[in-house]
Design the sequence.
């Protein structure tokens, strides 16, 4: 948690593998051998899938080797845990990179820019890409590049625009591509290409109200709470693994415009929480679901 | 609110009609003319449907006539507001009647029995009807009649059982028929017969997870909040007007059994709130939605 | 609610007076006489103090007179309700004015600037006054004047600085003076001078953790929820009438820095909600408490 | 979590000790050596106090020895971690015992009886002790002993009554002594005697509104949320380590009686959650605070 200054940076190990006896012992013994002072440790054994997940953070200063050597040595441990094991070791002292995709709605962009400026987001926002120019000025005020990529009205003709977006995004090799109310459905090849890195905020409590105009759908149904969902983007619309959700109470006096206004606050909170957890390697995806060590 | 002792009972007017200028003036002038000291007043003008709703409570002691005469005199006012006007005048000093339909799950029944015993529910529970005998003992401990109506396994053969339930319920002419985890789909003629009085608790945040085993559906989808919905029963399954909803946070460590356990608390809260509002004439139905003057 | 464009602006009547029979009738009859189409109406009869409160909004287009004439005619009605009656009639088409007092913390300022830019706040931010220059740049980016008023370290010598703040504020005759994490205790004469207009955000769930460093106090006590409180400023520190409060869950893993970060989100929400309600004349103060017709 | 049937019971290790490198490795290596299949594991390193906490649950069937032998062997590990180490090893297959202290308010007792009957509480309620007879009947309906211990009006003369309560409680050697709205302040020697086992539910969001009539205090202050706090009892009134808290929204229309009614729901939830966590050895006390591995 808190700020990751280079003085007290941490090495963060995230891992998922088939569950069996002795995994915690194997990993923690390794960490002890390299001198790692554990400041955060979380585990989850998933009875449903028989999978084991862990995230551990050690003080970098307690480990007497480079992160490269640490990774090399841990690779041998991971190999013992089986060929399906997936793991990463990251350094909180290395800034992560984020690219934002936006359209006309300002609130999520404005919120993330403010959090980044305040040092709350453990990443740099490298670029903002918009299919409209509405959010260019506010982006540039924060000293961040804005790229305008116009999208044709006909969905069938958007291929070149998406290709341009892809190139602009990939130039930064970002840890997260955030669809901050981008309002465009990514083609499946981009979903695949950015798998595990593309994060969307959907303005409903999924799986309710998939697709367009969810506040209108919520108003028509007469629900008493509205919500927002932060999830990884997959080829199936609004069906990717959910990272975070939250809701706010509404009542009969709230018209669609009121729901839109109140919903913005939930969208901002849910997106910023989900993104921060993703950037801190707290989110492990398994199938259609996530483990979140928040 | 508070207790409706006969000492300080109230007359409650609930009304819905097409909106136009002067309705509030007409109604409040009438109440002033009969001496009514207003202790609660709520209004809603629905821009979407052009409908007007109000609920007003006056001290019975301030009105110098019987409730029968009050109704008679108000009928003339209502007539002025147009033929579509729907209204009721009730007396909080007259105990309302509730019949509960249950199956095997005890928590909602136990919760409502406790609230009734504690004087929190402004009604008498006249009878409990179960398609199993599991909840007979706890019902009788509270001095309430329990009727066992076995249901055949084949849904096509349940007609006589539902007919028996109907007769047992109608014998009490209840203000509310509560499906307290009854787990049986009412035939459409019963939905029609008890329209506006049959209240169900569904163990999901509708419209997500309609139908059977919603906690299993929620677990499979990996949602981060689970919920419950109290709604009026209509012929379309889990699609009736929503009275109240609420949610509770879950995470990756919660298995289906944990969701079931935590969900019970939300079911109890949501059902008890929705039922109380219904019994206090705080819920006005219009089309597929409700106005709740909570 | 929603935006107050001049096309569909509304006249809003807010009133408090000693309760008795016939008040609603008197007011609503008046509104009907002037042709007022009521779009929102809320009432509260306070049993504890014997006071009556109402807020009513009518379509301006439905009233065939100027707001000046409307006020003049309503004054006669108010006079009938007794000498203690307090009331206002405002026009949502007239922009209200807000002045912000800040120090070094950016989040509340940044949030309010974003909401104002997005048209969500029914007011213009006329000026920002800071006792430090940290927030000058972000203020000016939004095209808003920033005034730097340095404060001496010795509290006993701050009189002239407060006098300068007072002049800068009063130049705008604002409807709200918002202490957006200003971190300075207003002298009692300023509390008196801006009574009912000075709004503070305190970063605790009052009355817990009055005064300095509330997150440190919360951490030391080991509470499981932290909160924020938006309240009117009075001479007694953190004891003014509460407009809005909310909380967020924390646990043993959250250090003070985590509480500070998570608390910011609650501060922003609570302040923005409280301020909007104040600006929409939804908050009526009575003694140490508020009636909020949200 | 879930039910602790003897088939799949678990051994639960809870431990607190001064933090240093290698603790996780030492404990998990020990568990691996005895064959322990870990199904739940949680850690917390407290930066503020330099203390380390863990709770781990292993399948009993995976460990090839008695719990007595497991404890004996773990004692050697604990000794390595220093003389300040505190730890327990419990078996979820051994039913725990709870004694309830009550007065006249039924809701918490009724709620706990229902949860125990529904198999939701991992413990047996051995006895209920009341200073009034109001709750005798409902207790006996559940087949549980009720002891009536009248309390003199004069606090100075209550010594013998408390002595009788102590004897009745200690006869069951309970894992938890729950003050379920007992409304009597325990003498400090009983606080000491039941330290870490006596659990109180206070009907406010502590540290706000300590002592008597907290809903009246909340009403007078005009707060917008009311709450409840489950905490360990210590000699200082309402100041013990907090296990769980929650809140519910109220508004100006809620009188004290409404707060009392709505507050009951929060009291029940907070007490039942806190008690369950305590009984599942999820709560570790350190100084004035708790670590809760929920």
Sequence:
């Amino acid at each position: 948690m808190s700020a990751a200054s280079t003085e007290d940076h941490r090495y963060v190990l995230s891992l998922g593998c088939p569950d069996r006896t002795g995994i915690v012992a194997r990993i923690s013994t390794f960490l002890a051998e390299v001198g790692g002072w554990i400041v955060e440790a979380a585990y989850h054994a998933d009875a449903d899938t028989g999978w084991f997940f862990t995230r551990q953070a050690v003080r970098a200063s307690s480990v007497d080797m480079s992160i490269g050597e640490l990774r090399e040595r841990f690779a041998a441990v991971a190999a013992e845990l089986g060929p399906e094991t997936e793991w990463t070791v990251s350094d909180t002292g290395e800034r992560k990179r984020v690219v934002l995709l936006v359209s006309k709605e300002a609130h999520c962009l404005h919120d993330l820019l403010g959090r980044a400026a305040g040092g709350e987001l453990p990443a740099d926002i490298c670029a903002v890409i918009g299919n409209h120019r509405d959010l260019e000025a506010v982006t540039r005020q924060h000293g961040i590049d804005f790229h305008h990529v116009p999208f044709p009205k006909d969905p069938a003709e958007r291929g070149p625009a998406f290709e341009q977006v892809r190139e602009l995004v990939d130039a930064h090799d970002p840890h997260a591509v955030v669809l901050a109310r981008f309002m465009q459905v990514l083609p499946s090849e981009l979903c695949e290409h950015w798998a595990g890195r593309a994060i969307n905020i959907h303005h409903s409590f999924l799986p309710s109200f998939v697709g367009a105009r969810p506040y209108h759908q919520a108003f028509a149904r007469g629900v008493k709470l509205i919500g927002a969902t932060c999830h990884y983007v997959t080829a199936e619309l609004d069906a990717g693994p959910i990272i975070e959700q939250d809701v706010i109470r509404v009542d009969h006096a709230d018209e669609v415009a009121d729901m839109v206004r109140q919903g913005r606050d939930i969208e901002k909170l849910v997106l910023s929480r989900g993104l921060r957890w993703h950037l801190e390697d707290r989110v492990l995806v398994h199938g259609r679901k996530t483990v979140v060590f928040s």
About this structure: The helical segments of chain B are 23-33, 67-80, 107-117, 136-141, 159-170, 188-193, 214-221, 256-279. Chain B has two domains: 10-91, 96-292. Residues 96-292 of chain B form a domain with the Rossmann fold fold (CATH 3.40.50.170). The interface with chain A takes residues 44, 46-48, 205-209, 219-225, 227, 241-247, 251-253, 255, 288-292, 294 of chain B (CB under 8 Å).
